[in-house]
Automatic annotation (TrEMBL):
PROSITE patterns hit by this protein: HTH_CROC1 (PS50943)
InterPro entries listed in its UniProt record: Cro/C1-type_HTH, Lambda_DNA-bd_dom_sf, TransReg_Diox_bact_type
PANTHER family linked: HTH-TYPE TRANSCRIPTIONAL REGULATOR, METHYLPHOSPHONATE SYNTHASE
Protein known as: Helix-turn-helix domain-containing protein
Domain HTH cro/C1-type residue range list: 23-78
Keyword line: DNA-binding
Amino acid sequence: MSEPGAAEAYDATRLAFELGREVRELRERRGWSQSELARASGMTQSAVARFEAGGTVPTLPVLERLAAALEVGLSVKFEPRGAAA
C-alpha cells in the first residue's frame, strides 16, 4: 500500500466487488439467471458476469439500469471515514 495510488486502487476494487456481490444476491433472490438480469437491464450476460465478479467499476447509468431491473432503489452517498468522524 506504500506505492502511489495503491490505496485508491484497493478501494475501487473493494467497492466493485461489494457492488457485484450485492447485485448477485438480489438477482438470486429473484430466482433469475445472469441472462435474465442482462435482458431486463439491457446488458449482455458476460457484462453481468464481469460485474458480479467485481471485474468492472460500474458507471452510474449502469447501476441505475441494474437497480431498475431488480426493482430496488439506488442510493449513492458520501460517508465519513474512520473513528474521527
